[in-house]
Structures
1.
Amino acid sequence: MPDMASFRNAVGTTVSSTELRPKLTKLLLNVTIQGSVGAVQVVMSPESKVGDLVAAAVRQYGKEGRRPILPSVEPSFFDLHYSQFSLESLDREKKLM
């Protein structure tokens, strides 16, 4: 039975399938702003931080003219939570996962 997890390249060295997996270049994230009907879609690089995502989501929300209108578009006034039922917000300096 052939080994499906690895194969031999032209030189004869073994390369595992995890080494062949392409690296992520962009992430498509859905962010729901409380009171809004649907999620805002934001495309970010994997090296971005939570604070960058908050800023991009608020900017996109305002750009799309969604309702309810936000009292401010200053990203520092907003926090990112795992869900609407979670009181703990994510650290702005953490990388996106």
Note: Helices lie at 17-20, 50-63.
2.
Amino acid sequence: MQHIRHLFFDLDGTLWDFHRNSYDTLHEIWLNTPQIHRVTVSFDRFVHTYHLINNELWDQYKAGLIDKDFLSVTRFERTLNWFGYFHPTIGKKMGDDYLRLSPLKTQLIDHAIETLEQLKEHYTLHIITNGFTEVQHNKLRKSNLSSYFATVTTSEESGISKPHGGIFSYALSKAGASKDNSLMIGDDMEADIAGAKSVGIRGVLLSSYENHAGDCIVIKNLSELPKILLGHATVLPS
């Protein structure tokens, strides 16, 4: 592993705990939007519906079919519409609130800080993330993660979303790195690992349920990463 010099991390779900932070943000919005309490059976039902709609819209955004403004508002409008509530002003307010409140949440994936502390002495660290530039930078700042990373590449900045290889090539160029001296660490097999592999970057998958993922190594906890990279555990496959 001596040739590896640059580590590229995904943000949401790999370092920043997207599920817990998003849940807390949505709950805060739900509590502060009394209009929707009359039409939804429960917060959990609201969240389930929101995620179904949000995932569909994010697929469209990643394919370049819609822009971020349409996504951020429409996901809430359509969730409200699902429950028979039609009020675009409320949907826009919820969308604006989500973009404002979500980056303020600071729950991190277990062992994120200690892992970065160990690795920063030996590698140059970077971020590659699908997301809006301002939102992702705010997440990093509020969670005290910004200082660990030499570069941050977002899909909005590059104009390309993971798993498209173009965003990884863009990030390599921005970092002054090459595919041969770089490694991608992420929690999504398609977006992070397969996407990086498409341009020749090897990957490490963070997954609590995968045991094998092709020719990349799988870790169940971030604390395993320094042991592997610094030569104290099983080496990465070639």
Note: The longest strand covers residues 124-129.
3.
Amino acid sequence: GAGSGWSVKHINKLMMMSEAYQMASSFENAANATADVENRYVWRFRPQRLEAEIVRDAMLTAGGNINLAMGGEPIFPFMSKEALTGQFRGKWENTPEGPAAWRRGVYVYSRRSLPYPMFDTFDHPDMNVTAGARNVSTVPTQALTLLNNPFVLSQAQKLADRVSRDAGDPYAQIDLAYRIALGRPPAEKEVRVAADLIARQSLAALTHVLL
């Protein structure tokens, strides 16, 4: 309010430090889950889909390689030759893989005639029209992107490398991977499933699942 000089930063901090903002989104309170399934009384945080740019940023953060440099030229995340075929006008020059390409999504080049496919899949607004709010959808292409996209696979490997570097045995790695990716420790059943997955496939397979 007026006492803080109408500071927007003060308002943001006030909201983020509030009890409501810091609530968990899990259904651990069985009584509340039964009495208020729709969360009308705000006893838990409402789960919500991350926005397109933040999906990418979250993976970079989990992998430990996000570049937080501010300002400067835009970046051009990798786009396949197939996607670029027939684009005779406009610019899209893939930024080589590395710190320069790992900047936050806000710095990804926006081109109306050629939207970045990953952002497009996760409901980035159509840049040809004004959008008062973003659509939120759940479609098969989102799951397929998370399963097969080269960027997602590379970030899963980077998260696996980070975990294997900072934790020794498989159980410590599982705990750390969950804490980094999901912000919580794994449940007992999740530990068993994860250990089996690591034994049968690899640590990168587990981190891919978590992403």
Note: The longest helix spans residues 150-166.
4.
Amino acid sequence: MRLTLIRHGQTHSNVGRHLDTGVPGADLTDLGRQQAAELVNHLVDHEIDGIYVSRLVRTHQTAAPIAAVRGLTPVELPGLHEITAGDYEMRNDDDAMAGYFATFKAWSVDGLHVRMPGGEDGTGFFARYDADVLRASTESTAPVIVSHGAAIVVWAVDRVKNVAHDDAVRLELRNTGIVELEGDPVDGWRLLRWQGEDWG
């Protein structure tokens, strides 16, 4: 099975460097809408039989051009949203950024019980994200999931066989970056390509 994960297009909060994880979240910018439209060409050779989005509006807006061309209706799933920022929500200062990303590192070093201040812990994040990847993989043979940068990177680092925790520094994911995996939820996933580059 081929699973494709895509980060949403640029939002107004991305431009302001704000930790925007609440519902409904910021809209796409004009550039973000252009990025979403360009995904149609980037995915022209991809088989797609299901499109899944998070509860945040930016994933719906990003998926819309692909869905229209393919004649598919995006399915909103409850667990594909961004890792909640908690007390850091809508902040853009360096301390907030450092605290947000330090929590992800703590999940791999200290354990999934570590909680984002005012937010969720790693156990909760992986449970909800795994459940929705399983659902998408059960309902579709070639699903596309439009989700969020930190969520995709953190999930991939922990759940993909040929990606190690030390690889996290290599896995920056730009807006509308495409991640291609092969496998299934039972036997596991392997990373094929990260933003168009073959994964060695």
Note: The chain has a mean pLDDT of 96.
